[in-house]
Specification:
By secondary structure, this protein is an alpha/beta fold. It is built from eleven helices and eight strands.
């Protein structure tokens, strides 16, 4: 693994990394403790740990129960659903996700679910839609936040949401659309979560969406260990790098960093059902 980037200057106000995969890069107890400490030292004292398959979902629930800094989200990733369906295991997996979603009060979210037309071919899209619908229903029934993965499927995601109806709280994880798509999501009640991609050179449309978004709907995330912000692309991402993305976001929006951090912190509590 490449060497991790240096720690950035701490933020002037704490924020939450609302989407992280500690189980992929820091899955042992010492690694989790170290990752939480490193993030807290730069102003990121809380993390939403997301499980994308059954092992990851189980890990997320256990980690959230163990560590005060964490809450959990559980779901079957849209690319996982067709694989499970082909093996005849999708129904059992969805039942296990429902059990895990209600297993502990620190499970705050159902996600990440949604649609991915990049890694899954058309033969798997029907299964993705069915899985997405089932996760939406689960989030509404259990009053959890819905966390949506959308890759190259903007309109189809909106179509499913319009058909099923959105839960009270929902987050567009790693928002990847333009200003028009941002407006469509905001009109439906979304919080928009921005990752290190907002720092990429070719992300002008994404930055336009960031400028459009009202301050009270903006979140920040790492999606660690992926999507490491510039200038550290190609090296492992982690929650302690949130300040790099937050500073870029404040610059793009022309806002005071401390003011934006305070808003993002409050927004995350609103989006995920309160403090922890």
């Amino acid at each position: 693994m490449s060497e991790r980037p240096p720690a950035p200057e701490p933020l002037p106000h704490p924020v939450v990394d609302n989407h992280c995969h500690l189980d992929i890069a820091d899955d042992d107890q010492a690694g989790v403790v170290e990752a939480i400490a490193a993030a807290s030292a730069v102003g990121v004292p809380r993390i939403v740990q997301i499980g994308c398959d059954l092992p990851g979902a189980r890990w997320a629930v256990a980690a959230a129960a163990e560590h005060q800094a964490l809450v959990a989200g559980v779901a079957l990733h849209p690319n996982e659903a067709p694989r499970l369906a082909a093996a005849g295991e999708l129904e059992a997996a969805l039942a296990e996700i429902e059990r895990l979603a209600g297993a502990h009060p620190k499970v705050r979210a159902v996600g990440e679910t949604g649609l991915d037309h990049f890694r899954t071919g058309e033969e798997g899209w029907t299964t993705q839609v069915e899985s997405f619908r089932r996760h939406i229903d689960l989030a509404k029934r259990l009053e959890k936040t819905l966390v949506i993965h959308d890759r190259d499927a903007h309109q189809d995601v909106l179509d499913v949401l319009d058909s099923e109806g959105t839960p009270e709280r929902w987050v567009m994880h790693c928002f990847s659309g333009d200003a028009d798509f941002a407006r469509a999501c905001l009109d439906r009640g979304a919080h928009l979560s921005f990752a290190g991609t907002v720092t990429f050179k070719n992300a002008d449309a994404l930055r336009e969406a960031l400028v459009l978004a009202p301050r009270d709907r903006v979140l920040v995330e790492t999606d660690a260990p992926y999507l490491t912000p510039t200038p550290y692309r190609g090296r492992p991402n982690a929650s302690y790098l949130i300040p790099v993305t937050m500073r870029a976001m404040a610059q793009v929006r022309g806002e005071d960093l401390e003011v934006l951090c305070a808003a993002v912190d409050a927004n995350t509590e609103a989006a995920f059902g309160g403090s922890w």
